[in-house]
Write a structure and sequence with these properties.
This protein has one helix spanning 104-107; strands at 3-10, 12-14, 17-21, 26-32, 37-40, 49-53, 58-62, 70-71, 74-75, 81-83, 88-91, 94-100. It has 130 residues and is mostly beta strands. A hairpin with a 4-residue loop joins strand 6 and strand 7 (58-62). It is globular and about 35 Å long.
Length: 130
């Protein structure tokens, strides 16, 4: 796999797209109105979720147990959950779409039933950078 492209489908963000390249771990990244990745929409918390890319798999975790982020209407826990291409992560009034990046994106369709599992050896979330 050549990585992931994550695009804001509802809400406003700076930048509007994040690219995670295969072999280049990144994160954890706080996502929210005041996060490392600023995503704004009604009901979005200062940090609503975290993204982590281990260089091969993209993971998401909710930042707040009381107002969790969701995939397909299912609330996400505070633990890392693998995200599959084609899934959308919703939090507050914001939605971000996860797609494959690179040449394989056109050849590989999104899975019919996504598999979610905790990440091995998760990285503890960090506070957003001011």
């Amino acid at each position: 796999m050549s990585g992931f492209t994550v695009r804001v489908a509802a809400g406003q963000a700076s930048p509007p797209v994040r690219v995670f390249r295969a072999g280049a771990p990144e994160g954890p990244i706080g996502v929210g109105a005041e996060g490392n990745w600023v995503v704004r929409a009604q009901g979005v918390l200062p940090v609503h979720a975290f993204l982590f890319f281990d260089g091969e798999t993209l993971f998401v975790a909710s930042a707040d147990r009381g107002k969790p982020a969701e995939i397909a209407g299912a609330p996400l826990a505070l633990e890392w959950t693998a995200v599959e291409p084609g899934e959308e992560i919703a939090f507050g009034g914001a939605r971000i779409e996860v797609r494959m990046a690179g040449a394989q994106a056109a050849r590989r369709p999104a899975p019919a039933s996504p598999h979610r599992s905790p990440a091995p050896a998760p990285v503890a979330p960090v506070a957003p950078v001011a």
